[in-house]
Amino acid sequence: MADKLNAVKGMNDILPPDSARWEWLEEKVRALMARYAYRMIRTPIVEPTALFVRGTGETTDIVEKEMYSFEDRLNGEQLTLRPENTPGVVRAAIEHNLTYDGGKRLYYMGPMFRHERPQRGRYRQFYQLGAEVLGFGGPEVDAELMVLAWQLLADLGLRNVRVEINSLGIPPERQAHRAALVKYFEQHAGLLDEDGKRRLHSNPLRILDTKNPALQQMVQEAPQLLSFLGEASMARFETVRSLLAACGVPTSVNPRLVRGLDYYSHTVFEFITEELGAQGTLCGGGRYDGLFEVLGGKPTPAVGWGMGLERVLELVKEQGTAIEPPAPDAYAVIPDAAALPQALALLQQLRAAGISVQMHAGSSEGMGSMKSQFKKADASGARFALIFGADELAAGEVTLKALRDGSGAQERQPLADPLAWARKLQSAA
């Protein structure tokens, strides 16, 4: 016997009935995005490695430690499984001149890949929903995107989520803050861990994002970027907050919020829950006006967010929202294989009319007993059984048996005109 093969650690199968939760979530997302006039974009799972080195940031954990990168054996090109999708969206926008006729509101859903230690809500292959607005520079789209995320969580019935917000200002303001940070951390170099020492001069802003408990007090006392923002940046920040308040989205300012990627400027934000332990960030994003130029495009304002779908579904489950897999309208009970031609022809007509029907499937020994078929019909969740018995077929009919209303009522219907009685199944839905 051949050795058993299992999925790669941290890359999970999504099986029925759990897949019904994913379908439910995806339907909610598509409906909401349509209401906000966002359109789907699909980009490749594999991109040039340079896209993420330049776009995500050479000194980020993602690029330094977590990417699945490899050399294409055909041409030697360095490729990477996408660890996030914002650089890919911007690359596509530049390549196809997507904003030539004005700004675009886009969204995507799909798998991302990071080589990190798997834990609850955090996997090596994970699914991310993202929304990106390209070509609009005003604070109103920053607010709109956050309202969009807030509304999605509300549509999913989620509670106890807080929104933290900060501003990273513009490059000169960040440079002044950076110089103050370097000076401050140099004065406390003896307290820095190895990661902090490595980043002290390459990217000191990252130290503010440390998860090391021993550094928290020192980090809390570090210079705050908000203190270095000019009048225009502060006015923009306050406009975003006031627009959110007008839409009923409460926010709290977190001056230590810097996000983990190099391309952010001005508004940054996170949606956080306390109910998933250490993996409490459900959604995060911000404005990244400089990314188009970094990737070889024309200066283009842009803002977006990403949301981890595994974490969202964990919270849905944690807060008690039950998602039941869809049940068929009817289950076809077929006592004898000789009835299969007539049964299949009828089922095709019903399905063409929009009725969902699960057909009983037999084994090499036959179709199975009526008793076993009715057990499977009941287990399917169908509201009706369609019985293709010999007596019914001889009369040119099929029996409809109610399975869910407790009556067990039965009635015969003509095989020749299924569309007339198919409405019975639809009206019972």
TrEMBL record:
InterPro entries listed in its UniProt record: aa-tRNA-synth_II, aa-tRNA-synth_II/BPL/LPL, Anticodon-bd, Anticodon-bd_dom_sf, His-tRNA-ligase, HisRS-like_core, HisRS/HisZ
Gene3D superfamilies: Anticodon-binding domain, Bira Bifunctional Protein, Domain 2
GO function terms (MF aspect): histidine-tRNA ligase activity
Cell location: Cytoplasm
Catalytic activity: tRNA(His) + L-histidine + ATP = L-histidyl-tRNA(His) + AMP + diphosphate + H(+)
CDD domains: HisRS-like_core
Keyword field: Aminoacyl-tRNA synthetase, ATP-binding, Cytoplasm, Ligase, Nucleotide-binding, Protein biosynthesis
Domain Aminoacyl-transfer RNA synthetases class-II family profile: 25-335
SUPFAM superfamilies in alphabetical order: Class II aaRS ABD-related (SSF52954), Class II aaRS and biotin synthetases (SSF55681)
Enzyme Commission number(s) of this protein: 6.1.1.21
Primary subcellular site in the record, as a coarse category: cytoplasm
NCBIfam families, A to Z: hisS
Subunit structure and binding partners: Homodimer.
Family: Belongs to the class-II aminoacyl-tRNA synthetase family.
Listed name of the protein: Histidine--tRNA ligase
Organism listed in the record: Caenimonas terrae
